[in-house]
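User: Structure tokens for both sequences below?

Assistant:
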Amino acid sequence: MKSLMSMKRISVATVALAAASTLLSPASLALAAESTTDRVQAAARCEVRSNGKLYCGNYGGAPLYATRSYDSEVRDYIETTQSVFLCWGRGDRHNGGNNVWYWTNGDMYGRWGNVPAEYVFTSVDPPAGMTKC
């Protein structure tokens, strides 16, 4: 009975893998691997300096919200991929698996706003030593 269950699991896994490989091209798999590698490398370069600010990589095009909520106005965008974040606070839960948001200045209009931590390449949210808003 145990070997029959194992065979069923292998069959399901094989079918799932075959289906995934037909949906994902080699180029999309390479891009996913590259962006994961880039994010890990960028997180290694993130640092909180003695002024309590976070200097870290982020996704370009990240939206900045008026408050720490997706329901608030989008005030600006981060166009650069390396930014300075002044402080952090808690808000809406996001796809980063937590509710940490960072306060920074936007690049398009020069407006200040909050960005969900999922757009910032930190290894821990919030990083130790960073100023809380």
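Moving on to the next sequence.
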Amino acid sequence: MVTNRFARAACGGMVLTEAHSAVAAMHDSERPFWETKQLDEMTAKEWESLCDGCGRCCVHKLEDEDSGEIAYTDIVCFLFDCDSCRCGDYANRTRRVPDCLQLTPELVRSLPWLPQSCAYRRIEEGRGLAWWHPLVSGSRDTVHAAGASVRGRVILEQHVHPAMVDERITDWPGEDVPDQ
């Protein structure tokens, strides 16, 4: 039996600021922070910059009460901006949406539903960042161009009748995105 209990998370916000500028200014002999640090060792700015802005962590998930199996939907939080793939009120999201999670290194290690393509998960698993990640590409647009984001594939929760949630189950949010 699938419960209508939503699990939400906000990866980190992804602000292209000082951390991105620092990467761009690096000498060729230096390695970027995501290649040299564990998640636990990152500064707040480094942590925030790891979010690729895909929005996959913001889709509602359903958990089977008996088996614990997770089913992804194409439904996103009412705060989600479907064009930018960002939270519309990131600073206040956990106050406004009590079940929204603030990702931590511990949660990255323990959340079974964190998308395979998630930068936090990739770093934790030693897979590095994908070519389309903004820290690698230098552009926020590559996450969308690569098909890694939820742009054009999700619906806001306020537009879905509660009786229709099971009809919105899909697999793509949990699938990995090819590195090529």
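User: Anything stand out in the second?

Assistant: Residues 8-174 form one domain.
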